[in-house]
Design a protein that fits this description.
It contains eight helices and five strands. It has 347 residues and is of the alpha+beta class. The protein has a five-stranded mixed sheet with strand order 1-2-5-3-4.
């Protein structure tokens, strides 16, 4: 509204100058005053336009960030649902094949056993042995064994995926407040949940020192991690494509590692006791392409990978199966010494 008013004022001043110039009845002082007012109006309009452009760019950036978070959340939910549906369909198909194979290999019903002979006085009646079922043909037995192994493998995979989905939901719940406020984003990657921090929100400009806002974010991160015991942590430092060099830091690799290790030390000081380590990827794993300011802000980040610690299970064994220990072998019986023959006396 203010912009429109200034524009109208400038138009009226310009028309007034033209009219006065045509009439020829304008003094020099009045003419100079009108020019000064016109310059001031133009400067005010330019400042207002610059302010409007800056506000528009800031609003566009915030809207883009919200859309990216919403897009990541939708993709994670869709992938998790599609993967679970595919596993369920595959499990149902294997079960149907197994049932069909059992129907094809069904054997004829054994005839009922003959009635026992009548009891006779003085002779016990011998029991009639039960018929022993015939074994399956080797080819069908091998197919049945393969089906059973496939069913067990699918069940194990389904259990692992369900456990990973539960762990990811727990991470989302723990970081829900930070996600809603736009300080972090949480995505799922294979068997881990990844919490992403933009470097501009944690560190001072182009440095490895935490800002006050970054310290507050990491304190709240430590509170969230207190709800996720039984997980291992990995902090990865990532930079943008700009080459970095200073007296203390030689390259982007050292910059990424320094940021990751400083964040890890701060979390340790806040009481985070999970097993953790830090690493650096420099600019080798960008999230987006481009060298504009938005791409640099997105790629320069620290990622916190949260992985559940799997229980110790022997290879090939299922967690819900307990294998009893093999009984100890009985010691071999010690042979008795042979009897020594007594000497015979000749008469």
């Amino acid at each position: 509204m203010r912009h429109l008013c200034l524009l109208r004022s400038a138009r009226w001043l310009a028309l007034g100058m033209v009219g006065l110039a045509l009439t020829g009845c304008v003094s020099r002082n009045t003419h100079e005053l009108v020019l000064v007012q016109l310059d001031a109006t133009r400067a005010a309009m330019s400042d207002q336009q610059a302010t409007c452009r800056a506000s528009q760019e800031q609003a566009d950036a915030q809207l883009k960030a919200v859309r990216e978070r919403l897009h990541d959340a939708r993709i994670a939910r869709q992938l998790s649902k599609e993967h679970a549906d595919a596993l369920d369909a595959e499990l149902d198909a294997v079960r149907a094949q197994y049932a069909e194979l059992l129907r094809e290999s069904s054997r004829p019903v054994m005839p009922p056993p003959a009635p026992p002979p009548p009891k006779r006085r003085g002779r016990p009646v011998e029991p009639v042995p039960e018929p022993v079922p015939e074994p399956l043909p080797p080819l069908i037995q091998a197919q049945v064994d393969q089906m059973i192994a496939a069913l067990e493998a699918l069940a194990e995979q389904h259990e692992r995926d369900a456990a990973q989905d539960r762990n990811h939901q727990a991470v989302l719940a723990a970081f829900a407040e930070l996600v809603d406020q736009g300080w972090v984003t949480v995505v799922r990657d294979d068997n881990a949940s990844v919490v992403r921090f933009q470097a501009s929100k944690l560190y001072q400009d182009d440095s490895v020192y935490l800002s006050e806002r970054g310290q507050d974010i990491l304190k709240r991160t430590a509170t969230a991690l207190d709800q996720l015991h039984g997980s291992s942590l990995e902090l990865e430092g990532h930079t943008d494509a700009r080459a970095f060099h200073s007296a203390q830091i030689a390259s982007n690799w050292e910059l990424g590692f320094a940021r990751a290790i400083i964040a890890l030390r701060f979390l340790r000081d806040e009481g985070v006791d999970q097993a953790a380590h830090a690493s650096s990827w420099a600019d080798s794993r960008p999230l987006v392409t481009g060298d504009d300011e938005a791409a640099q802000r997105t790629n320069a980040r620290v990622e916190l990978w949260i992985r559940p610690i799997a229980p110790s299970v022997p290879p090939g064994a299922r967690a819900d199966k307990v294998v009893p220990p093999e009984p100890a072998a009985e010691p071999a019986a010690t042979p008795e010494p042979a009897a020594t023959p007594e000497p015979q006396v000749q008469p």
